[in-house]
Amino acid sequence: MAGHEIEVLEYRPGVKFNHEDKDLVILSGGGGEGLEIYDLHQSSRRLWYQDEMEFVLKNDKPLIGICMGFEVICAAYGQKIYETSVLTQGYKSIIPTLKGQKQISKAALTQFESHYWQVHTAPKGFEVLAESETGIEIIKKDNIFATQFHPEKGGSLSLRQLVHQTA
Fold first, then answer.
1. Are 133 and 100 in contact (CB under 8 A)?
2. Does an H or E element contain 91, and which?
3. How many CB atoms lie within 10 A of CB 105?
4. Residue 8, in any domain of the structure
5. Does the residue 18 lie in any domain?
6. Is the residue at 53 inside a domain?
7. 84-125 pLDDT tens trace
8. Phi/psi zone of residue 23: left (φ > 0), alpha (ψ -120 to 50 degrees), beta?
9. Phi/psi zone of residue 95: left (φ > 0), alpha (ψ -120 to 50 degrees), beta?
10. Fewer C-beta neighbours within 10 Å, C or N terminus of the chain?
11. Which CATH number covers residue 39?
12. What Rg value do the Cα atoms of the chain yield, rounded?
């Protein structure tokens, strides 16, 4: 984003997050390479995303989760993520809740999705701001805002708008 320094870090188990001097952290999409939310890291026998989940719980910066980032946030806060038998992919209709309509100023969304996972119940303490036929699409708690869809691919809610919702 213009006027901001951006650092991209490819996640791997054991990576150290240098976020102390950052204004915002974005956990973007992932998986697809066989490293899904419940996969184990072969050498440590811990969940592949365990370090990222622990980071989420300790983080005090504004945080955005996108797709896998949404799933990591939900799992970090103890919510079960359900695997589907069919890939959800393409532009889908998403319906904001009443709180969601107030938060994002939109009565309906069309967003791009690409995942085999879904969340049916928000983690404790999180508000559901939007849902679709496949499950929860947007959650929020304090300085955490997460979407199951990909706002960076375009649609009714852009990544820029999402950043402004969180910052």
1. no
2. strand 82-96
3. 11
4. no
5. no
6. yes
7. 989 989 999 999 999 999 988 889 999 999 988 999 999 999
8. alpha
9. beta
10. N
11. 3.40.50.880
12. 15
d(CA 120, CA 25): 25
Q: Show the tokens assigned to 138.
A: 């947007």
Residue 10 forms part of a structural domain: no
Q: The domain containing residue 53 runs over which residues?
A: 25-166
Tell me the Ramachandran region of residue 153: left when phi exceeds 0, alpha when psi lies from -120 to 50, beta otherwise.
alpha
Encoded tokens for 64: 């955005």
Backbone angles phi and psi of 153, in degrees to 5: -90, 5
If one counts the domains in the chain, the total is: 1
pLDDT for residue 1 is more than 60: no
Q: How many CA atoms lie within 13 A of 22 on its CB side?
A: 17
* Residue where the block lists tokens 């984003």: 1
Q: How far is CA 119 from CA 13, 14, 91, 122, 145, in A?
A: 24, 26, 18, 7, 15
Element (H, E) at 165: helix 159-166
Which three-class secondary structure state does DSSP give residue 111?
Answer: strand
The 10s digit of each residue's pLDDT in 38-64 is 888 888 888 989 999 999 999 999 999
Look over the chain and give the mean of its residue pLDDT values, rounded to a whole number: 89
